[in-house]
Protein 1
Amino acid sequence: MKTICFYFQIHQPFRLKRYRFFDIGEDHYYYDDFTNEQIMQRVAANSFLPANQLLLELIKAHGGKLRVAFSISGVALDQLEQYAPEVIESFQALAKTGCVEFLAETYAHSLSSVMDEDEFRLQVKQQQKHIERLFGVKPKAFRNTELIYSDEIGDIIYSLGFKTVITDGAKAVLGWKSPNFVYQSATNPNLKVLLKNNKLSDDVAFRFSNYDWSEYPLTADKFIDWIARTPDSEQVINLFMNYETFGNLQPRESGIFEFLRALPAFALKQGIEFLTPSEVALKLKAVGPISVPNPISWADEENDLSSWMGNDLQREALGKLYSVSERVRLCKDHRLRQDWNYLQTSDHFFYMSTKQFTDGGLYKYFSPYDSPFDAFTNYMNVLSDFMERVEAQYPSSVDNEELNSLLTTIENQEKTIASLEKEVRQLRRSGAKTAKAAKEAKAAKPAKAVKEAKPARKAAAKKK
């Protein structure tokens, strides 16, 4: 039986406001709240809410046979909770069906997997906890930022407790092989690797409403027929795409919701099942190892990291940012830690890319800046202020080991003080109880004496 594995990515960055050189040291708030709220509410109304409602209807209509997975970044969850809480509620309704899997990824949708392993580990755990708190399920499968993966990253992912990872079906990695099989890591046979079927995924995500496409219009029966005609030996068709495909990137009037509505019926009619990534990994055996010595991603023909680290601007910004990572991890300042997460988001570095910017491609479409240099300048101004704040709390004149020791001493002192204060409160409560008991006992003695005296007086009266 053929299997379709649907995974949808949900992510929105906290976009930065115009931050000038003269703002450094004066203004510590970096975000364009108006734009962030406007975009999230628009995407929620056009895409997330109607798509979630449709999925819920389809899951019920097909008796739970439609199964899908979502990877939602921590920064997207923060914005949804802030600007569109009704979307969180709609995902909670989907979670209750038991037909939806939530994947783990980096909280900040960051490049930490290739920049800072300690930060990567912390962010994965942070995002897991957030998913568990909101939806009551702990992620079991992993999807890295921008589908970035390598053998080395795979080893880290496995050490974090994951046995399934999804990534891109890059030509450089696959060669003559098909993405429609379950593979295993070349360095760790216990880690199963699911690869995106780029052609079929992009037919929906990018080409669906393209009038110049030779296959336009794409209908559900045609699409399922393509899947059914793949070789019988091929196990699974991994359809990985941005969830905004439904209603935002492909607008409602394109027929994208009607396409999604009809898809499960045509698939089930042809004996094609739907499984989540974890279910695929449990049901299907790996056909062999897949070797990924260098990091790959979903982006461009190269499928490498050049969209985020390909020029001097990007590398300079990333190097500066992660130069303070150890000090930020030592801090307990919530605002500083929050800014640290939001400044790591990969989108900031994507906006600095010089690839195809002048051609009006994806880079220019998604970027709020006039040019990559404009994006770099704005980001570096913000980063300069952020680093000044880190320096003020954790001076670079003190080395990390000494600073860590000092902070540990302070933390231990705070714990000791808290413990002593708790003990004092308990003693006060105990003293108050003792004083109250003594007072009550003292008040009870005269009453008892009177009570005991009454029979004596009665007896004396009888004798008389």
Protein 2
Amino acid sequence: MAAATASAIGVFARGSGASAPATSIRGEAYRYATDGVYAYNAVRVVAEGVGWDAVTLFVAAPALLVAAGFIARGSVRGRLAALGILGYFAYQYLMYAVFWALGPLFPLFVLLFPLSLVGIAWLWSTVDAETLAAHADGFPRRSLIAFGFLAAALLLAMWVPRISTGLSGDLAGAGLLGTPTLSVQALDLGLVVPLALATALLVWRRRPAGHLLAALFSVKAVTMAGAILAMLLSAWMVEGSLEVVPFAIFLGVTVFAGWLAVGVLRSVH
């Protein structure tokens, strides 16, 4: 409910869309929102955030409630689905806590991401990974290995050039948008890439923990890729132009990750 509340406020209290020009302490010119719950953030950032919040409000939060119902009945599939959804929440609200300009939702962000991590730890402790692996039927092992390595490679290909661009002094090209550093890139390369590689390697080596990581990674991937699609669409509505290539890439990722997540959950007996 806390995530639904935070995302609802983000969607419905986003402000009028009014903005003003600013220059960051690093000399980058940008426009920032002057009102709404996400005031003082770059206009592009607010647009993307509203799209992300919409996916959380209308997809991720209801999915977690459904999973909770299955967990209450002792469902292992419900636990595995909830692992991935909580992984999505942990990433989202850690990002919000360290990236958004200080605002009224900051205490809620700081509450949500550690609670999500606690939920992941608890769910992990309730599943016997060895029994799960021993009874898996139709587990998409090869596809998961390929997806883990490809996801890591995609993020590296996306972000390493942008980091290099920023370090060269081209702040606009790096997309800092008034912020002092590249928080998204730091979290993707520091958290998501290791998660993708760990999932691929553990599944490859047939370790029982690989089944749990596969559920967490695949469900998180489909929700996160879907959120990125919504972010691009929301930015399109504000800016009037759609980034076609990233949209096509993440549409493909969403579909493939969804197929993988279904395969992982269906393999549980």
Protein 3
Amino acid sequence: MLREKQMSGVNGWVMMAVLIAAAAGTVAMLIRTGKDAEHPFPMMIALLVALGLEFVCLFGCTVLNPNEAKVVQLFGSYVGTMKEAGFWWVNPLTTRRRVSLRVRNFESSKLKVNDQDGNPIEIASVIVWRVVETAEALFNVDDYEQFVHVQSESAVRILATSYPYDSHGEGMSLRMSVVEIAHKLRDEIQERLTTAGMEVIEARISHLAYAPEIANTMLRRQQANAIIAARQKIVEGAVGMVEMALDLLSSKGVVQLDEERKASMVSNLLVVLCSDRDAQPIVNTGTLYQ
């Protein structure tokens, strides 16, 4: 597999000065030869060829911006990659392809897939990536930007089918395990993009929802689960409060309660504590047994 190798060029300003000075000298010799020599034609041809070569050498000058690389090829062979910003000169017969090393974002389109439970969901992601190996990015794949798009959407599909939308309190889920799912998604995409010389800096889910055809049903299910969970908390708290009340009454000797009276008191306290409405006070003028 082709690997990146770095190269450096000749200082462009120095080479530009040398070429200009050589061209000026060639022109001066060309003028003097035309005036003084007996047979100037062969010499003039040689000087014209030299001037043409000096002009061609000017095409070896190239500018490299920060966070930019240029992949250098000579007649189809990979020569190396220039990454140091500045003004440089290389062999004018080489071709130089620009590759951006800047950090880039990619947001996938909304994909409709089935989660682990078979529920249709809509999911989209944001991928932050950059090129780190220019030779692999250019020569191992046809179009590395398109490669990022296709492989990212494929990884999102696989991730969505591997976890449920909501775990209902058990295991990881797409909705609740945000950080863990983001790490899983990043690792999945990085594994696919390594062969193309790219690094995934961050990957996260940007959109997650049930598909429209089941959204209302799932919303009612979530509401029911929330109500059940709230009721469980209320009952647990109420039982603790009743137990505490009975222990305090018994330890302080406020009143002596038999089992039947305790059961009645527990029933009344649970009704008051667990009801979703305010209790209505009732004054009992009799006794429990009348």
